[in-house]
Design goal:
The protein is mostly helical. It is 58% helix and 0% strand. Helix 1 crosses helix 4 and helix 3 packs across helix 4. Bound molecules: heme C. Heme C (HEC) binds next to helix 1 and helix 3.
Amino acid sequence: MVRLIVCSVMLLPGIALAQDIERGRQLAARWCAGCHVVDRSSREARADGVPTFPAIAGKPDSTPEHLRAAMNPIHGRMPDLSLSKRDQDDLAAYILSLR
Ligand code: HEC
């Protein structure tokens, strides 16, 4: 019984990470796909210059901190999407999973 509990606790971080990426993918499809290419289909920037998510993921300075800051509406041309911290974390995890 004790061993069972220890095992499931050890497994949890891996499961949580997988869920976060999947949740980030769904958020991206809903909130970001209007402007960004959010799947692996293209690394090319669109004609209007909005970077694709694989292109963002490929940049060396794309750390989770940088991505969260970029989702903050104080920056650039991004709209205010009122994302929660968890949304931002999951979206950053999804974007970086495209590396
Ligand atoms: C209304 C259009 C629009 C929507 C919707 C949008 N973005 Fe953006 N995003 C942009 C533009 C335009 C840029 C280019 C940088 C700039 O000019 O601010 C950008 C840049 C970024 C960057 C920075 C890339 C870099 O090189 O630093 C990230 C990260 C990003 N967007 C993530 C997201 C995420 C995540 C979502 C969905 C929650 C989203 N964007 C939704 C327009 C949008």
